[in-house]
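quick one, 354 residues, struct below
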Amino acid sequence: MSKSKKFVSVVIAFLMLFSVLSMVGCKVEKDTEENKEDSHIKDKNSDIVIGLSLPTQQEERWVRDKEKMEEVAKEEGVTLKTQIANQDDAKQLNQCENLISQGVDILIIAPNEAKNFTSLSEKAHKDGIKVISYDRLLLDTEADLYVSFDNTKVGELQGQYLVEKAPKGNYVILSGDPGDNNAKMFKEGAMKHIQPLIDKGDIKVVSEQACVGWKPAEAQKHMENALTKSGNKIDGILAPNDGTANGCIQALAAQNLAGKIPITGQDAEKTGAQRIVEGTQSMTIYKDTRLLGEAAIKAAISIVKGEDVDAQEKIDNGKMDVPSNLVEPVIVTEDNIKEILVDSGYLKEEDVYK
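---
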């Protein structure tokens, strides 16, 4: 090879190497800038301490809430102190008082008993600590924000579905825990569709019961009693969530009736989705707790910083009109379960279609 050709080859090789190094350098610089930006966000928020009180981890949906909120808190660089009440009212109050004494900047509370927080909320505000009511509305007290789903709409979707599937006949109407304001809102929404048919005489209510603690065993007991009372002649079942639906289905299965009677649900739990595919549960309500958890943490950060939070509406809690951000629920049936729950990444396909 001539000296000139060797020279040209060396120049080309050098230019190629320079190009590669430039690309690598740009990527490193970009990654460094992104890391700097993330670090800057975390540095700005590093002094913020959020207290979180959840009612339980015994239901799949509350596990999801906790995981998402911890994830977002880490991304935003804030300290999140979490307490789980295990459905114990007194324990939840004590845990919240401890969070206040630890000097948190803001409290996010999903109350086990909605009316228990009047004194605690007053104490928090006196100490300069803001309060966000999460998922369940705190009643008869001051709150700075309510972050939840449109719970009346949840009930409306359940009631509308049920009367379309069973416009006449014997009904079992179940509601959630009597101390949970959401349970009241779910039922009120459902009865907008069911009550007119009761008044008309098309629907007869065989049993109307609350499920203390949202316990599936409570729902199963109520369902067993209703089946005995009606001689197994039930045409529609309003179950407030997937757990209570499961309790009812256990009672139905004992009478070889599982899958033969329309029954509602809520929360889009993995087991609820499986029952829909199997045909024993008719529907559920999808409430993307990932959106709710993220919204709560980010709203908490904004409130602590003194920034405006864009509350879409206000809801009366008996004491005040609480600024509220509400997420729309979505009905899920066998027809759209893959699109809504699987394709969105909310549930894994192998968990739904066993």
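Residues 212 and 238 are 16 Å apart (CA to CA).
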